[in-house]
Amino acid sequence: MGLVFVPTPLGNLRDITLRAVDTLRDASLIVAEDSRVTRRLLNALAIGTKEIWTYHDHNARTATPAILERAREGDVAVVSDAGTPGISDPGSALVAAAREAGIGVEVLPGPAAFVCAAVLSGFDLRRFAFAGFPPRSGGARRAAFREALGETTVWYEAPHRIRAALADLAAAAPDRRVFLVRELSKLHEQQVLGTAADVNRAIADPIRGEFVFVVEGGARESAGAAADGGAASAQDDAAIDAAIDALLAEGLSTSAIAKRLADEGRGERRHLYARVIERRAQDA
Protein backbone atom coordinates (compact mmCIF):
# COMPACT_ATOMS: atom_id res chain seq x y z
CA MET A 1 0.00 0.00 0.00
CA GLY A 2 1.14 3.53 -0.72
CA LEU A 3 2.15 5.78 -3.59
CA VAL A 4 4.31 4.43 -6.40
CA PHE A 5 5.78 7.00 -8.79
CA VAL A 6 6.03 5.36 -12.21
CA PRO A 7 8.20 6.88 -14.98
CA THR A 8 6.66 6.59 -18.44
CA PRO A 9 8.34 6.77 -21.88
CA LEU A 10 9.45 10.13 -23.20
CA GLY A 11 8.44 9.02 -26.68
CA ASN A 12 9.59 5.52 -27.56
CA LEU A 13 7.14 3.09 -25.98
CA ARG A 14 9.81 0.43 -25.61
CA ASP A 15 11.45 2.53 -22.90
CA ILE A 16 8.81 1.38 -20.41
CA THR A 17 10.22 -1.02 -17.83
CA LEU A 18 8.71 -4.40 -16.98
CA ARG A 19 8.33 -3.27 -13.40
CA ALA A 20 6.46 -0.15 -14.49
CA VAL A 21 4.05 -2.28 -16.55
CA ASP A 22 3.43 -4.56 -13.58
CA THR A 23 2.79 -1.61 -11.29
CA LEU A 24 0.33 0.05 -13.67
CA ARG A 25 -1.49 -3.24 -14.19
CA ASP A 26 -1.77 -4.02 -10.47
CA ALA A 27 -2.53 -0.53 -9.12
CA SER A 28 -5.95 0.05 -7.61
CA LEU A 29 -5.85 3.65 -8.86
CA ILE A 30 -3.71 5.63 -11.29
CA VAL A 31 -3.12 9.33 -10.66
CA ALA A 32 -2.20 11.11 -13.90
CA GLU A 33 -1.31 14.55 -15.16
CA ASP A 34 -3.67 14.08 -18.14
CA SER A 35 -6.01 11.07 -18.11
CA ARG A 36 -6.28 11.04 -21.92
CA VAL A 37 -2.53 10.63 -22.35
CA THR A 38 -2.43 7.89 -19.72
CA ARG A 39 -5.35 5.98 -21.26
CA ARG A 40 -3.53 5.94 -24.60
CA LEU A 41 -0.47 4.54 -22.85
CA LEU A 42 -2.49 1.86 -21.06
CA ASN A 43 -4.16 0.86 -24.32
CA ALA A 44 -0.79 0.58 -26.05
CA LEU A 45 0.46 -1.63 -23.22
CA ALA A 46 -2.65 -3.81 -23.41
CA ILE A 47 -3.56 -2.97 -19.83
CA GLY A 48 -7.29 -3.16 -19.21
CA THR A 49 -9.56 -0.36 -18.06
CA LYS A 50 -8.26 1.33 -14.92
CA GLU A 51 -9.63 4.01 -12.64
CA ILE A 52 -7.72 7.24 -13.35
CA TRP A 53 -7.80 10.48 -11.39
CA THR A 54 -6.15 13.66 -12.60
CA TYR A 55 -3.65 15.56 -10.46
CA HIS A 56 -2.14 18.86 -11.58
CA ASP A 57 -1.36 22.39 -10.39
CA HIS A 58 -5.00 23.49 -10.47
CA ASN A 59 -6.47 20.71 -8.33
CA ALA A 60 -3.51 19.50 -6.24
CA ARG A 61 -4.73 20.98 -2.97
CA THR A 62 -8.26 19.56 -3.22
CA ALA A 63 -7.28 16.21 -4.74
CA THR A 64 -4.48 15.30 -2.32
CA PRO A 65 -6.59 14.11 0.68
CA ALA A 66 -8.63 11.69 -1.44
CA ILE A 67 -5.51 10.33 -3.16
CA LEU A 68 -3.83 9.70 0.19
CA GLU A 69 -6.93 7.96 1.49
CA ARG A 70 -6.84 5.57 -1.46
CA ALA A 71 -3.11 5.01 -0.88
CA ARG A 72 -3.93 3.76 2.64
CA GLU A 73 -6.06 1.02 1.08
CA GLY A 74 -3.87 -0.10 -1.82
CA ASP A 75 -1.14 0.84 -4.26
CA VAL A 76 -1.73 4.10 -6.12
CA ALA A 77 0.41 4.61 -9.23
CA VAL A 78 1.40 8.21 -10.01
CA VAL A 79 2.40 9.13 -13.57
CA SER A 80 3.06 12.25 -15.62
CA ASP A 81 2.52 12.64 -19.35
CA ALA A 82 6.11 11.57 -19.98
CA GLY A 83 9.21 10.89 -17.91
CA THR A 84 9.48 10.77 -14.14
CA PRO A 85 6.57 12.29 -12.17
CA GLY A 86 7.53 14.88 -9.59
CA ILE A 87 9.90 16.76 -11.93
CA SER A 88 8.43 20.11 -13.06
CA ASP A 89 4.97 19.07 -11.87
CA PRO A 90 3.23 19.09 -8.45
CA GLY A 91 4.22 15.50 -7.65
CA SER A 92 6.79 16.60 -5.08
CA ALA A 93 4.01 18.19 -3.01
CA LEU A 94 2.16 14.88 -3.06
CA VAL A 95 5.26 13.08 -1.74
CA ALA A 96 5.59 15.60 1.08
CA ALA A 97 1.92 15.20 2.01
CA ALA A 98 2.25 11.41 2.00
CA ARG A 99 5.32 11.54 4.26
CA GLU A 100 3.50 13.78 6.71
CA ALA A 101 0.54 11.38 6.73
CA GLY A 102 2.76 8.35 7.31
CA ILE A 103 2.02 6.82 3.91
CA GLY A 104 4.78 4.96 2.08
CA VAL A 105 6.24 6.32 -1.15
CA GLU A 106 8.25 4.46 -3.78
CA VAL A 107 9.83 5.80 -6.96
CA LEU A 108 10.66 3.42 -9.80
CA PRO A 109 13.78 4.04 -11.91
CA GLY A 110 13.09 5.19 -15.43
CA PRO A 111 13.20 7.94 -18.06
CA ALA A 112 14.04 11.54 -17.12
CA ALA A 113 14.56 13.95 -20.01
CA PHE A 114 17.02 16.25 -18.23
CA VAL A 115 19.35 13.36 -17.37
CA CYS A 116 19.36 12.06 -20.95
CA ALA A 117 20.03 15.54 -22.37
CA ALA A 118 22.83 16.20 -19.87
CA VAL A 119 24.63 12.99 -20.83
CA LEU A 120 24.10 13.62 -24.55
CA SER A 121 25.68 17.07 -24.25
CA GLY A 122 29.13 15.69 -23.51
CA PHE A 123 29.72 18.53 -21.04
CA ASP A 124 31.44 18.04 -17.69
CA LEU A 125 28.79 16.57 -15.38
CA ARG A 126 30.81 16.10 -12.21
CA ARG A 127 28.55 18.86 -10.97
CA PHE A 128 25.47 20.12 -12.79
CA ALA A 129 22.05 21.59 -12.02
CA PHE A 130 18.53 21.05 -13.29
CA ALA A 131 16.81 24.45 -13.44
CA GLY A 132 13.40 23.50 -14.87
CA PHE A 133 11.65 26.12 -17.01
CA PRO A 134 13.21 29.60 -17.34
CA PRO A 135 11.22 32.65 -16.19
CA ARG A 136 8.74 33.93 -18.76
CA SER A 137 9.76 37.59 -18.88
CA GLY A 138 12.83 38.51 -20.88
CA GLY A 139 14.64 40.45 -18.15
CA ALA A 140 14.12 37.77 -15.52
CA ARG A 141 15.13 35.08 -18.00
CA ARG A 142 18.41 36.79 -18.89
CA ALA A 143 19.16 37.28 -15.20
CA ALA A 144 18.48 33.60 -14.50
CA PHE A 145 20.79 32.51 -17.31
CA ARG A 146 23.60 34.79 -16.09
CA GLU A 147 23.22 33.51 -12.55
CA ALA A 148 23.47 29.88 -13.70
CA LEU A 149 26.59 30.18 -15.85
CA GLY A 150 28.91 28.94 -13.11
CA GLU A 151 27.92 25.30 -13.63
CA THR A 152 26.43 23.15 -16.36
CA THR A 153 22.68 23.66 -16.24
CA VAL A 154 19.77 21.84 -17.86
CA TRP A 155 16.59 23.69 -18.81
CA TYR A 156 13.19 22.75 -20.21
CA GLU A 157 11.24 25.06 -22.51
CA ALA A 158 7.93 25.11 -24.34
CA PRO A 159 7.94 25.30 -28.15
CA HIS A 160 6.25 28.73 -28.26
CA ARG A 161 8.97 30.24 -26.02
CA ILE A 162 12.11 28.42 -27.17
CA ARG A 163 13.28 31.09 -29.64
CA ALA A 164 12.88 33.89 -27.10
CA ALA A 165 14.71 31.82 -24.47
CA LEU A 166 17.63 31.10 -26.79
CA ALA A 167 17.79 34.77 -27.84
CA ASP A 168 18.01 35.81 -24.19
CA LEU A 169 20.64 33.14 -23.55
CA ALA A 170 22.64 34.49 -26.51
CA ALA A 171 22.45 37.97 -24.98
CA ALA A 172 23.56 36.69 -21.57
CA ALA A 173 26.33 34.35 -22.80
CA PRO A 174 26.97 34.75 -26.54
CA ASP A 175 30.01 32.44 -26.65
CA ARG A 176 28.86 29.71 -24.25
CA ARG A 177 28.31 26.22 -25.72
CA VAL A 178 24.72 25.00 -25.70
CA PHE A 179 23.34 21.56 -26.47
CA LEU A 180 19.67 21.25 -27.41
CA VAL A 181 17.60 18.15 -28.03
CA ARG A 182 14.10 18.30 -29.49
CA GLU A 183 11.64 15.40 -29.34
CA LEU A 184 13.99 13.23 -27.28
CA SER A 185 13.66 9.49 -28.12
CA LYS A 186 10.96 10.18 -30.73
CA LEU A 187 10.97 9.58 -34.48
CA HIS A 188 12.03 13.14 -35.40
CA GLU A 189 14.58 13.70 -32.63
CA GLN A 190 16.94 16.60 -33.32
CA GLN A 191 20.24 17.29 -31.56
CA VAL A 192 22.12 20.59 -31.96
CA LEU A 193 25.41 21.74 -30.43
CA GLY A 194 26.76 25.28 -30.74
CA THR A 195 26.26 28.76 -29.34
CA ALA A 196 22.73 29.79 -28.40
CA ALA A 197 22.48 31.76 -31.65
CA ASP A 198 23.68 28.74 -33.67
CA VAL A 199 21.12 26.51 -32.00
CA ASN A 200 18.32 29.01 -32.57
CA ARG A 201 19.11 29.15 -36.28
CA ALA A 202 19.13 25.34 -36.50
CA ILE A 203 15.55 24.97 -35.25
CA ALA A 204 13.22 24.78 -38.22
CA ASP A 205 9.82 26.47 -38.44
CA PRO A 206 7.10 25.65 -37.62
CA ILE A 207 8.40 24.89 -34.15
CA ARG A 208 6.92 21.74 -32.67
CA GLY A 209 7.84 19.26 -29.96
CA GLU A 210 9.39 19.29 -26.52
CA PHE A 211 12.74 20.96 -25.89
CA VAL A 212 15.56 20.37 -23.42
CA PHE A 213 18.75 22.41 -23.59
CA VAL A 214 22.00 22.23 -21.65
CA VAL A 215 24.26 25.23 -21.04
CA GLU A 216 27.90 24.38 -20.43
CA GLY A 217 29.28 25.55 -17.11
CA GLY A 218 32.38 27.68 -16.61
CA ALA A 219 33.50 31.05 -15.35
CA ARG A 220 30.62 33.49 -15.42
CA GLU A 221 32.72 36.24 -17.00
CA SER A 222 36.31 37.02 -17.82
CA ALA A 223 37.79 40.21 -16.40
CA GLY A 224 37.18 42.03 -19.67
CA ALA A 225 33.71 40.64 -20.01
CA ALA A 226 32.95 41.58 -16.42
CA ALA A 227 33.90 45.16 -17.16
CA ASP A 228 31.79 45.15 -20.30
CA GLY A 229 28.96 43.53 -18.39
CA GLY A 230 29.17 46.15 -15.66
CA ALA A 231 28.98 48.93 -18.23
CA ALA A 232 26.07 47.22 -19.96
CA SER A 233 24.32 46.77 -16.62
CA ALA A 234 24.76 50.45 -15.82
CA GLN A 235 23.36 51.36 -19.22
CA ASP A 236 20.38 49.06 -18.64
CA ASP A 237 19.75 50.64 -15.23
CA ALA A 238 19.88 54.13 -16.71
CA ALA A 239 17.48 53.11 -19.49
CA ILE A 240 15.02 51.65 -16.99
CA ASP A 241 15.17 54.79 -14.85
CA ALA A 242 14.55 56.92 -17.93
CA ALA A 243 11.56 54.76 -18.88
CA ILE A 244 10.17 55.03 -15.35
CA ASP A 245 10.58 58.83 -15.34
CA ALA A 246 8.78 59.09 -18.68
CA LEU A 247 5.85 56.99 -17.46
CA LEU A 248 5.70 58.93 -14.19
CA ALA A 249 5.41 62.09 -16.27
CA GLU A 250 2.40 60.53 -18.01
CA GLY A 251 0.73 60.15 -14.64
CA LEU A 252 0.68 56.33 -14.52
CA SER A 253 0.39 54.56 -11.19
CA THR A 254 3.30 52.65 -9.66
CA SER A 255 1.59 49.33 -10.36
CA ALA A 256 0.83 50.23 -13.98
CA ILE A 257 4.43 51.29 -14.62
CA ALA A 258 5.84 48.09 -13.09
CA LYS A 259 3.45 45.96 -15.17
CA ARG A 260 4.29 47.74 -18.43
CA LEU A 261 8.03 47.46 -17.92
CA ALA A 262 7.77 43.80 -16.89
CA ASP A 263 5.73 43.08 -20.02
CA GLU A 264 8.53 44.70 -22.03
CA GLY A 265 11.06 42.31 -20.49
CA ARG A 266 12.78 44.92 -18.32
CA GLY A 267 12.79 42.72 -15.22
CA GLU A 268 10.59 41.12 -12.58
CA ARG A 269 7.48 43.09 -11.69
CA ARG A 270 8.13 43.16 -7.92
CA HIS A 271 11.64 44.53 -8.43
CA LEU A 272 10.40 47.13 -10.89
CA TYR A 273 7.65 48.14 -8.46
CA ALA A 274 10.24 48.85 -5.77
CA ARG A 275 12.32 50.79 -8.26
CA VAL A 276 9.39 52.98 -9.27
CA ILE A 277 8.79 53.80 -5.61
CA GLU A 278 12.44 54.82 -5.29
CA ARG A 279 12.18 57.09 -8.34
CA ARG A 280 9.03 58.69 -6.93
CA ALA A 281 10.84 59.37 -3.64
CA GLN A 282 13.78 60.96 -5.46
CA ASP A 283 11.46 63.28 -7.36
CA ALA A 284 9.49 64.25 -4.25
Automatic annotation (TrEMBL):
It is found in: Cytoplasm. Residues 3-199 form the Tetrapyrrole methylase domain. It comes from Vulcanimicrobium alpinum. The keyword S-adenosyl-L-methionine applies. The gene is rsmI. NCBIfam families: 16S rRNA (cytidine(1402)-2'-O)-methyltransferase. This is Ribosomal RNA small subunit methyltransferase I. It holds the Pfam family TP_methylase. HAMAP family: 16SrRNA_methyltr_I.
